[in-house]
Structure formats: structure tokens, C-alpha cells
Amino acid sequence: MITAEKVSKRFGRYEAVKDVSIHVKKGSIYGLLGSNGAGKTTFLKIITGIIRPDQGLTEIEGEPVYERPEVKERALFIPDQPYFFQQSTLMQMSSFYKAVYKRWDEKRFQKLHEHFGLDPHAKLSRMSKGMQRQAAFILTLSAMPDVLILDEPFDGLDPVVRQQVKNLLIQDVSERQMTVIVSSHNLREMEDFCDSVGIMHKGRLLFERELEELKTDVCKVQVAFRKLPDSSFLDGLNLLHYEKRGRVLICIVRGQEEEIHRHVQAFEPAIFDILPLTLEEIFTYEMGSVGYEIRNLIV
Ligand SMILES: Nc1ncnc2c1ncn2[C@@H]1O[C@H](COP(=O)(O)OP(=O)(O)OP(=O)(O)O)[C@@H](O)[C@H]1O
């Protein structure tokens, strides 16, 4: 279980994280989504105890993290640019990890670097971006963490390695109840990978929900009428977005399907359909509702 309660962090006068609370169940994968500069990286660094928040509390399995090496040992962070000691090889980094992380699994390390085909004696600095990221995963997963915090983890990995890394993570989540928080802009990927998501914008958490619940809570209503109804039709819906294409109204609506169905049927539509939304659509419409939307840019 990972919790953050009303966490805030300023850099000078700029408030990068404002009053953010999250709750992540043990043995689950939580996707932290959001706009550029939303504060995701800053928040992840607070969760892992790298940065001290100005206000609020964070806990991993009931224990505070900041300046607590015994908790940090069980909670590892892979930043968006993995860090290795200068001139080091994977083998040298593994000696460091072995010394620091008590649960280090040498057999796993051997298996993983052989599987990914990385030369353990080659300098990490001379490896490609994707290979360095693979090295970071090999080291981190061999340390057998209870909690894994990942910032844009799959960037630069080819599709095959990407799937292999995701499978390894899912295996650790299901077999040893590892808890994962992952930030990403790839919503298609997050949709299949996460159990729950939180969306951040301008330092604030807009909401957090289980993905299944989220998908049943917002839907797309496509409806056409012989004669357009009066304003009470739209007023009676909890609208996130609405557009008219010819005679068809497309409404993105928050609410329970049964209620929406009842409301629309009362206006005797000629055609009527309720469709589920993709995570990308949910993200776009939720962000639109706080004024962050796609506008045509002419330069
Ligand atoms: N060390 C720092 N000093 C000053 N400002 C910082 C620092 N770190 C982050 N910021 C600012 O805090 C804000 C949030 O940055 P952060 O990197 O947390 O966002 P993000 O959501 O991870 O963004 P992206 O999706 O673009 O990677 C940005 O405006 C950034 O400029």
C-alpha cells in the first residue's frame, strides 16, 4: 500500500505539486498520467523519498519514507534517465546493488542479463538509451523490491523488449504482490497495464479511479432525433463534451449507463447508442473540462 496525503512542493515561488493525495493498493499497478509539467516526476520523487515535501505525508506500507534507508531499500525508483556510476559496467553496478539491497537475487540477475543479451562487462555509458534502460530494469528487478516507482519507463524500448519488461513486472505484481506506480504519456499502453489511474494537471490531482470503474463511469452517447429536443435534454446529462455532426449528437457523459439510458429514451430518439470510451478519450475530455484542450495552432 502506498499513500500520499495532501502533499505539496514548491520550487521557489512555483508550486509544482499542490495538495495531492493518492492511494495505491498493495499488489496493484497505478498509472500516473497528466499534461507536460503537471508535477508527475516531482511527485514520484516525493513518494520515493528523494525530495522532501513542504507539506503532507507519504507512506509506503504504513511507514514514512524520507530519510528512512530501511524503507527505501524496499522501494526502488527508475527515473526517466537511469543513473549509473561513471565508467561503470553492469557487473560493477550489480556489486553495488548487491551490497545495498539485502534481498538481491544473484540468480535472477544472471538470468535476466543473459535473457536480454547485455554484456555485463561492457561500459554502460557506451550502451544505447534502450540498452541502458534494460540495464536499469535488470538491476532493479534483481533487487526484489516491494515497491517500484517508474518514470516514463518504456521510452526507448523496442516493442519486443517493452512487452518482456511488462510481463516481468506483471509477474512480480501477481506472484509477490509488488506494488507499482508508473508515469506515462502512452495512454494506449497504460490502458492494458494499470489497475487504476490518477490524472495530474498543473500540480493537482484531477482524480484517481480504478480503470474498470472509470470506464463504466464515463461513456459516449450517440443520438439522433427526428426533431431536436429542447435544452432540457442536454441539461439533464452530466456533460463533459458535446458536438453535433449533422443530425447526430455526440455527447461525452459522466454517470451510470442505466440512468443515461432512461434520460435519453424519454426524449424518443430515432437512433441511440451508448459506447465505452478509451483511456485516451477519457483523458482528453477530462483535461478539456479543466480548460486543457486541443486547439488548432496556426504559425
Ligand atoms: N528542481 C527544480 N527546480 C525548479 N523547478 C522545477 C524543478 N523540478 C521541476 N520543476 C518544475 O516543476 C514543474 C513540474 O515538473 P515535473 O518534472 O514534475 O513535471 P512532469 O509532470 O513530470 O512533466 P513531463 O510530463 O513534461 O515530464 C515544472 O514546471 C518544472 O519546471
From TrEMBL:
<dbReference type="InterPro" id="IPR003593">
    <property type="entry name" value="AAA+_ATPase"/>
</dbReference>
<feature type="domain" description="ABC transporter">
    <location>
        <begin position="2"/>
        <end position="227"/>
    </location>
</feature>
<dbReference type="GO" id="GO:0005524">
    <property type="term" value="F:ATP binding"/>
</dbReference>
<keyword id="KW-0547">Nucleotide-binding</keyword>
<keyword id="KW-0067">ATP-binding</keyword>
<dbReference type="InterPro" id="IPR051782">
    <property type="entry name" value="ABC_Transporter_VariousFunc"/>
</dbReference>
<dbReference type="GO" id="GO:0016887">
    <property type="term" value="F:ATP hydrolysis activity"/>
</dbReference>
<dbReference type="Pfam" id="PF00005">
    <property type="entry name" value="ABC_tran"/>
</dbReference>
<dbReference type="InterPro" id="IPR003439">
    <property type="entry name" value="ABC_transporter-like_ATP-bd"/>
</dbReference>
<dbReference type="InterPro" id="IPR027417">
    <property type="entry name" value="P-loop_NTPase"/>
</dbReference>
<keyword id="KW-0813">Transport</keyword>
<protein>
    <submittedName>
        <fullName>ABC transporter</fullName>
    </submittedName>
</protein>
